[in-house]
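Quick illustration, no need to memorize.
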Amino acid sequence: MIKIFHLTFILLSISTFIGRVILSETHPAILKQKALKIAPHVIDSLLLLSGITLIFQGGWFSMEYGWIFAKILALVGYIGLGIIVMRNHGTTRWLAFAGAMACFVYIGVVAVTKDAFFFF
């Protein structure tokens, strides 16, 4: 059941991120609404909480499961790049957006393969 919640929050998180980027380009005034400022933080907090719950349920909290740590590092990169996306414009924004999407894809592939170095 927790895995379904986690997958749902993943979908909501990436959808709200992409939606906010689109809105920032097309209708930036809409992003000033209180609900659009709070909702992504609530969704991402629930996503993180469900992920932590899955780590403990699966007994994956050891160095034997290095792929979890790779996902956490990629998540930090995704968050950092997401901040850059939302605070900048022009080329910087789009390069950071591409990097954030690459982190997101990496996290997803690592989650499925359980291999942090799947590309080797």
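Residues 62-120 form one domain.
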